[in-house]
Amino acid sequence: MNWKISLSDLDIGQEEIAAVTEVLQSKWLTMGPVTQDFETAFAQYLGVKHAFAVANCTAALHIAHQVLGAGPDDEIISPALTFVATANSILYTGATPVFADVTSLDDLNVSPENILSRITPKTKGISVVHYAGYPCDMERVMQIAQEHNLYVVEDVAHAPGANLNGKKLGTFGQIGCFSFFSNKNLVTGEGGMVVTNDDELAEKIKRVRSHGMTSLTWDRHKGHAYAYDVTDLGYNYRIDEIRAAIGLVQLKKLEQNNELRATAVETYHKMLHDVEELTIPFSDYRGHSSHHIFPVVLAPGVDTNQFRTDLREQGIQTSMHYPPVHLFSHYQEKFGYTRGLLPVTEEISEREVTLPLYPTLESESIAYIVNAIRAALKRQKQVPVIQP
Ligand SMILES: *Cc1c(COP(=O)(O)O)cnc(C)c1O
């Protein structure tokens, strides 16, 4: 399908091409100086002590839960209104994901009070997702975690650069996990980052990322170490120099691109304010969002599929975030989760539509989208709804 307006678009240019070319010419393709520079720059940007670049965010999350000690007897509380990797990464450790509902149709982040209600003697940690880039109530989440001796992993896939009271998301919990997948705010193709302020965890993360080995190729190359031991079960979750080079350039553009996203969202707000059959979540929300995606919630009774079809016919690509994880077959079969477990999450999954958003989305395009939305909603009013 050739979209008139696609859901997302990348800001890739000559600088990225030059950076990749330089790496290829250097003939040092993995775990070298460019990766170290990327990690240092990312850590500095976030204001965090340690950052480790990895293959993707799913690997980052797996590493996080493993080094924090999750295992087969443990329960980890997570939202279900997220990409499946948030929960799959818990399963990789043998632990059980226990799902908490999100706050409301206006606040699509996990509810701290619902987290509290899911705590059992087996609970070991909490995984939060900053949906669309909007900060979860980290003050309350960290308070609950401290009171119940739980760890907190932040899935920051949507929220690089977002902050709460000036503190960057990903630095509140013990570990933060970022994604640089092709449709995120900072892209390297595949790629991710694990960040922490804890020195001991940092050592573990570094080893687990690379086979559990105590020393790395680059250190040996520089003559720092001649042998290695394997102290933990590790994986090959490394990134390569090519992606790290793209990441370094992309990081420089992140602040400005996040601001352009914010401007586009503001334009949407202005143009949609009198559309009654639709609400825009996260009104008057805490913190500063990175505006990864632009979700809207359709009024009860509006046919979401028909609405999306009508927009598609106008060349507008939409999406939905997310099919709830607890209702996927694998999760239903393995844990017996059923519909009704998370009423708010389930309702959102039926009424949410994600509209196009990217830094270079122009206000004329937004006007075009909003016109298509008005037409789609008007058409639904005219067609009598026939119940099967
Ligand atoms: C994209 C995404 C992930 C997975 O990231 P990958 O880098 O593709 O592994 C995890 N969680 C959320 C919320 C995401 O949006």
What does this structure look like?
- It is globular, with a radius of gyration of 22 Å.
- Strand 2, helix 4 (85-92) and strand 3 (96-100) form a beta-alpha-beta unit.
- The longest helix has 32 residues, at 241-272.
- The strands form three sheets. Strands 1-9-8-5-4-2-3 form a seven-stranded mixed sheet, sandwiched between helices. Strands 10-11-12 form a three-stranded antiparallel sheet.
- The mean pLDDT is 95.
- It is built from 13 helices and twelve strands.
- The protein has 388 residues and is of the alpha/beta class.
- 40% of the residues lie in helices and 13% in strands.
- Pyridoxal-5'-phosphate is lined by residues 56-58, 82-83, 85-86, 129, 155, 157-158, 179, 181, 192.
What's the SSE blueprint?
Elements: H1 14-26, H2 33-46, E1 50-54, H3 57-67, E2 75-79, H4 85-92, E3 96-100, H5 112-117, E4 123-129, H6 138-147, E5 151-155, E6 163-164, E7 167-168, E8 175-179, E9 192-196, H7 199-209, H8 217-221, H9 241-272, E10 278-279, E11 294-298, H10 304-313, H11 329-335, H12 343-351, E12 352-355, H13 363-382
Parallel strand pairs: 2-3, 2-4, 4-5, 5-8
Antiparallel strand pairs: 1-9, 6-7, 8-9, 10-11, 11-12
The structure holds pyridoxal-5'-phosphate.
